[in-house]
């Protein structure tokens, strides 16, 4: 039965309504239940689904971690998480919801813990009517993925319990750190679960605005004919962050900006922008088209990484007048580290649609502004008629993923007055003004969890996509490893090393000002 979902402002005003299939009965087992992700994202997302009527009344959560905790302790920390990171909590909803939260402490590699888990899940089936449906969510550090999966298999928890039930595995990033580790992990996971049971998360795909790129491209006939090399000069993808590495210095120092954000989130954005329309809007055709883009991505030979990529690392500086430390001064970062916190790249997609149209990627931490944007820069008009027209910025379609979510089209217009003088103006769609100023946008995890329960894998990455992305990244990693210190410093609070400007200017182009 479908549920009427109303899009409301925080004040409760209904501004749009739609119908949505609610999740089926199900037990969600969260491995790593005492961790940050569970409190910040997963429990708030599950609770919001509950409040929206999208969670089945027959749903239960089983937290699993090493920490000793009672069900009540787990419920208390869940409530704390909701207060800090969730949306408004209705007391009535919380009172009903909290009894569906359970917890058990166990060792991730101990078979007896999984026997206990199996018994607890059977009890949950009886008490909550979860009908043997299971989601196993791996929210642990990645080094535990293999052992948890193996143990689930040994305990027989990887199989569905009947023809009508399901057992699914949801895996958080990072999915491997290079091609070899991603292949090994895929091989291992697929020796226990069938690919159709596996849901690999890239939380960017759950973002409302990222899904809107698909709607924008596929539901509006006017853009598709110009979405190609004949009309588009180049594309710029920016993921700019003001935050540094926070408390993740130990992890980040091993990984760097390229593997943390570019290789996964940005390649996903790129494949959605560049893919061909799928035959039907279903998981496999959509993922097939994304995979084709990754396959067409030109490899950058190690000896050419200096030409097509540039790395940076932040030194101390100021953000909004507040002094911040250098990357090397961050907790758990090596004082002589050469790990990159900033990357720019020039990529080419070798297919008919995009041949010769560069895609510029820019990502960094401790930049002056938080902004994720995809800018489609169109070619200039073939002839110039008006004085000063050459100084006008060509048409740009800017898709703003976050914050200030929206889409803007920039074009030239005549300035009112007696002379034929032109100026750039924007035609703007903003979520805020079109759907109400206080629109509550569902968190990416809400959408992804709901899809996992519904069995829709469109917004999850497939094994071959993950491996293709790593295969492409390998040459770059190799090229960088040959020149580990070829990293340019930039002051925190600036737009990266000065070389980043030269990098794009030599092609006669400029980075978008955010
Ligand atoms: C995570 C990275 O995957 O994505 C973080 O590990 C990064 O370093 C984050 O800050 C960005 O996500 P969002 O949703 O804040 O843009």
Structure description:
- It contains 14 helices and 19 strands.
- The chain has 514 residues and is α/β, with parallel strands linked by helices.
- The chain has two domains: 3-172, 3-Layer(aba) Sandwich (Rossmann fold); 205-505, 2-Layer Sandwich (Dihydrodipicolinate Reductase, domain 2), CATH 3.30.360.
- The strands form four sheets. It has a nine-stranded mixed β-sheet with strand order 18-17-16-15-9-14-13-10-19, sandwiched between helices.
- Helix 1 crosses helix 12 and helix 6 runs antiparallel to helix 13 (463-482).
- It is globular and about 80 Å long.
- The structure holds 6-O-phosphono-beta-D-glucopyranose (BG6).
- Residues 173, 241, 260-261, 372 line the site of 6-O-phosphono-beta-D-glucopyranose.
Features:
Rossmann fold, globular, binds 6-O-phosphono-beta-D-glucopyranose, 23% strand, 2 domains, 514 residues, Dihydrodipicolinate Reductase, domain 2, alpha/beta
CATH class of the largest domain: Alpha Beta
- Unreliable stretches (pLDDT < 50, length at least 5) are none
Estimated radius of gyration: 24 Å
- Enumerate the distinct ligands: 6-O-phosphono-beta-D-glucopyranose
**Structural domain tally:** 2
How many strand segments?
A: 19
**Approximately how much helix is present in the residues?**
25-40%
Main pleated sheet = 9 strands, mixed
The CATH architecture assignment of the largest domain turns out to be 2-Layer Sandwich
Strand content: 15-25%
Between the first and last Cα atoms, what is the distance in angstroms? 45 Å
Task: Indicate the multimeric state.
Answer: single chain
CATH superfamily of the largest domain: Dihydrodipicolinate Reductase, domain 2
Shape: globular
């Amino acid at each position: 039965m479908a549920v009427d979902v109303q899009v409301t402002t925080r004040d409760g005003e209904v501004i749009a309504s739609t119908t949505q299939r609610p999740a089926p009965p199900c037990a969600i087992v969260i491995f790593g239940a005492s961790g940050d992700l569970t409190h910040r994202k997963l429990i708030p997302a599950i609770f919001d689904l509950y409040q929206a009527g999208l969670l089945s009344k027959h749903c239960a959560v089983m937290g699993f971690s090493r920490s000793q905790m009672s069900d009540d302790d787990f419920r208390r920390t869940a409530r704390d998480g909701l207060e800090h990171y969730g949306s408004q909590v209705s007391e009535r909803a919380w009172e009903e919801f909290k009894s569906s939260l359970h917890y058990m402490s166990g060792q991730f590699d101990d078979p007896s813990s999984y026997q206990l888990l199996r018994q607890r899940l059977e009890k949950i089936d009886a008490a909550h009517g979860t009908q043997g449906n299971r989601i196993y969510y791996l929210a642990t550090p990645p080094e535990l993925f293999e052992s948890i999966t193996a143990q689930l298999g040994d305990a027989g928890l990887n199989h569905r319990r009947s023809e009508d039930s399901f057992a699914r595995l949801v895996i958080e990033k990072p999915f491997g750190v290079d091609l070899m580790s991603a292949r090994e992990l895929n091989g291992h996971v697929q020796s226990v679960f069938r690919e159709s049971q596996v849901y690999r998360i890239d939380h960017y795909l759950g973002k409302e605005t990222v899904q809107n790129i698909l709607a924008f491209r596929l539901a509006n006939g006017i853009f598709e004919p110009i979405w190609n090399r004949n009309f588009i000069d180049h594309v710029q993808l920016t993921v700019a962050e003001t935050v540094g590495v926070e408390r993740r210095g130990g992890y980040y120092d091993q990984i760097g900006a390229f593997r943390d954000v570019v290789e996964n989130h940005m390649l996903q954005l790129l494949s959605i922008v560049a893919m061909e329309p799928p035959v039907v809007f279903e998981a496999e055709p959509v993922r097939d088209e994304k995979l084709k883009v990754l396959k067409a991505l030109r490899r950058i030979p190690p000896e050419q990484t200096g030409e097509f990529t540039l790395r940076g690392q932040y030194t101390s500086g100021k953000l909004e007048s507040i002094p911040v430390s250098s990357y090397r001064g961050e907790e758990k970062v090596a004082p002589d580290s050469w790990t990159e916190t900033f990357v720019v790249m020039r990529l080419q997609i070798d297919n008919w649609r995009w041949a010769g149209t560069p895609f510029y990627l820019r990502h960094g931490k401790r930049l002056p502004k938080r902004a994720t944007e995809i800018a489609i820069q169109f070619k200039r008009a073939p002839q110039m008629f008006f004085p000063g027209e050459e100084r006008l910025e060509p048409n740009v379609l800017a898709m703003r993923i976050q914050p200030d979510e929206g889409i803007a089209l920039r074009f030239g217009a005549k300035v009112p007055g007696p002379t034929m003088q032109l100026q750039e103006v924007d035609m703007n769609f903003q979520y805020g003004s079109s759907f109400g100023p206080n629109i509550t946008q569902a968190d990416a995890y809400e959408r992804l969890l709901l899809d996992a329960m519904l069995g829709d894998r469109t917004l999850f990455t497939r094994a071959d996509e993950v491996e293709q992305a790593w295969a492409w990244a390998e040459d770059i990693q190799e090229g960088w490893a040959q020149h580990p210190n070829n990293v340019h410093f930039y002051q925190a609070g600036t737009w990266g090393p000065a070389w980043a400007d030269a990098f794009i200017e030599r092609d006669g182009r400029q980075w978008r000002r955010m």
